[in-house]
Amino acid sequence: MNYKSFLNILFNNPLVKGASAHWWSQRLTAVFLIVFGGWFLISLTTFDSYQYAEMRSWAGYPLNFMMLILLGLSLTYHSCLGLDVIIEDYIHQASQRKSCLYLNKKIHLILSIILIVSLIVIYYGAI
Amino acid sequence: MANRPRPLSPHLTIYRWPLTMILSIMHRVTGAALSLGMIVFILWLLTIAFSQNGYNFFLSIMESRLGQLALFLWSFAFFLHFCNGIRHLYWDTGRGFDKDKVELSARLVIFGSVILTIFFWLVK
Q: If one looks up domain B20-123 in CATH, what number appears?
């Protein structure tokens, strides 16, 4: 097999297509999560209690709301990319792998929608 | 696409387990565990948004002994994945691949994540 046809087969493989974008997205969201995830765990240490009213006013505060949106989007995206890799590694049968990857994306999409809607409801309810 | 049997490279069960390998596996395990933790995080916000009773129920589970244990393990998973993630980002710049440096950064990651977990639960 010559070099060009090997590359051709390689880059037309659905698992390889977009691999570079996958790699960069994983790194970018990782850097975001250092910032937003770190912020969130520091925030957890500042709560006096975890009572409903305190949580609701905290999450509805504009800066926290914005940070939670950014955290939520980075988190769901990073989680989706990570589970993609796990599925690709352990599910060997091609059609099963394809449907698992599809399902993974849909589940993460739904989770991110639930998260964003919740945050918007908290934000507008807290004003 | 037919599923042809392919040759496998030497796998987990073949090698002696060095620290670097344990960390590599733990990065994946903690990643998967944190994906589950993410669902709890979303439930937390969902109940805050839509149901005070739901939130109180959520809180009672999380404040139970089992809930606290789960949260403790999730916090350790977070810090381990966090520290090892920074190690990976450092590797992505093409540095730190010498045998000694890989071993040193592995030790730093484990030390750092244990300290951060203890510190987190002390100040929380």
A: 1.20.1300.10
